[in-house]
Amino acid sequence: MGFNRPSKIQETALPMMLAHPPQNLIAQSQSGTGKTAAFVLAMLSRVNTARCQPQCLCLAPTFELALQIGRVVERMGQFCADVKVTFAVQGNRVAPGTRLKEQIVIGTPGTVLDWCFKRRLLDPGTISVFVLDEADIMIDTQGFCSQSIRVQRWARAPRGGNRGPGNRSRGGNGGTWRHGAEAAAALAPVGAAGAARG
Ligand SMILES: Nc1ncnc2c1ncn2[C@@H]1O[C@H](COP(=O)(O)OP(=O)(O)OP(=O)(O)O)[C@@H](O)[C@H]1O
Ligand SMILES: [Mg+2]
Fold first, then answer.
1. Per its record, what are the GO molecular function terms (predicted)?
2. For residue range 73-116, what is the model confidence (pLDDT) as tens digits?
């Protein structure tokens, strides 16, 4: 891939993103400094390929960005056998009752919300990593802020059944910011903790 050493934001954020137990992280750095590569690596490292079900959920503000992140997952994921990605975006028609096998789901807020609540294609009990890319844009965009918060709350909600506290070591929540620390503050009430700025 031509990656010889981590960028500054990667050097700072990766140890937190790969930590056990998982931690929440908000990262802010200039465009092109490697944030996407960092959270993609974190998602790939958390996937259990023995389980063919969604485990990482990533929200992006646009269809194009979701596909772009997917391409990075595929590029970096070529070194991880059996990792699959699917897109929760408008136009991706999934038959009712389908059991998703892909471990990484990338989508836009409206469609992801639909997949979570209406179509029930996603089960919060299997999601261990939640990523909100371009969170500042999400928070500034009418509708996306509340949709993203609903998805994030859904993903981290305690489960019924036999998921006792011992089973609830949820993965990290992550957000990436390009501008404005106020955006970080806006997400803080829904569970993101800590901030890293490049
Ligand atoms: N450690 C690294 N070494 C070399 N190249 C890298 C490294 N990390 C990322 N890159 C490359 O740098 C470019 C920008 O990376 P990336 O898209 O992850 O940045 P970003 O911070 O998410 O940018 P944006 O803010 O525009 O979303 C990509 O082409 C990526 O492959
Ligand atoms: Mg990016």
1. ATP binding; helicase activity; hydrolase activity; nucleic acid binding
2. 999 999 999 999 999 999 999 998 899 999 999 999 999 999 99
Q: Let me know how long the chain is.
A: 198
Is there an atom of ligand 1 within 6 Å of 198 CB?
A: no
Q: Which residue has the tokens 């844009």?
A: 137
Give domain limits for the chain: 50-155+169-197
Residue owning tokens 């009990």: 125
35 within ligand 1 shell (Cβ under 6 A): yes
What kind of architecture, by CATH, is found in domain 50-155+169-197? 3-Layer(aba) Sandwich (3.40)
Measured CA to CA, the distance from residue 56 to residue 172 in angstroms comes to 10
Give me the residues near ligand 2 (ion), CB cutoff below 5 Å: 35-36
**Tens digits of per-residue pLDDT, 3-38?**
999 999 999 999 988 988 888 888 888 899 999 999
